[in-house]
Design a protein that fits this description.
The chain is α+β, with helices and mostly antiparallel strands. The protein has helices spanning about 50-65, 75-80, 165-175, 180-190, 195-210; strands at about 35, 70, 85-90, 95-105, 120-125, 125-130, 135-140, 150, 155-160. The protein has a seven-stranded mixed sheet with strand order 1-2-9-8-7-4-5. It has a two-stranded antiparallel ribbon with strand order 3-6.
């Protein structure tokens, strides 16, 4: 399993951590599960983040090989591009803070998102997945940007929001960005903490079960 340090707590799985922005090499093949998280660059800014082509290749291979995959925010956008979809600068501006996302009908039978319903999620992005890959199943939507979550095949999920983000993590992002409304946004996310845990911890546990099952339904 490859993901950021600390993110494995809800999963209950041993995780290898790969930090390409610190010089870690992107693996050629996924392990038994793959999580790709966010970042500051746009999904097409390979000159800014030169590890992105290898990350897209890894995501494409994970989908082709039915490796359980969870792609978050920039990770979701990289997965979208890797599999033939489109990511663009969002026409509706920055989506940031604790924002509502709404489950679509297909989510009711989804292994990860069947319990989500209408939920609060942490958002921090200004780019949007404007066209999903062929065969993608839309799972969640939102008022500012419609493509909030989808499944590709039976074992790959993309979410535009941040189910892994704690209030502390979100505060670190707003501190780095210098947003004028940072204090208000930080308080908003802190107030939603209970709802965030109640919704997204079960999703993480469900993904861990998919990994343990080797992707089998």
């Amino acid at each position: 399993m490859r993901l950021r340090q600390g993110s494995g707590i809800w999963l209950g799985l041993a995780c290898d951590v790969v930090r390409p922005y610190l010089g870690d090499e992107i693996p050629v093949r996924p392990a038994d599960g793959l999580i790709v998280l966010g970042g500051a660059a746009a999904a097409w800014e390979d000159e800014r983040s030169p590890w992105q082509p290898a990350t897209r290749d890894l995501l494409r291979r994970a989908v082709d090989e039915a490796t359980p995959t969870l792609a978050i925010c920039l990770g979701a956008q990289l997965l979208t591009m890797a599999c033939g979809g489109t990511v663009e600068r969002g026409a509706n501006g920055l989506e940031v803070g604790a924002r509502e996302v709404v489950a679509l009908p297909a989510a009711a039978s989804d292994r990860l998102l069947s319990g989500a319903g209408t939920a609060v999620a942490v958002q921090y992005h200004q780019d949007a997945m404007t066209r999903l890959p062929d065969g993608a199943v839309p799972l969640m939507t939102g008022s500012q940007y419609p493509n909030q979550a989808y499944r590709l095949g039976e074992t790959a999920w993309a979410v535009q929001f941040h189910p892994e983000a704690t209030p502390e993590i979100f505060c670190s992002w707003t501190e780095e960005s210098g947003l004028a409304a940072a204090g208000e946004l930080n308080a908003e996310v802190k107030a939603a903490e209970g709802a965030l845990v109640a919704t997204w911890r079960p999703m993480a546990a469900a993904f861990a079960e998919v990994v343990r099952a080797g992707g089998r339904t």
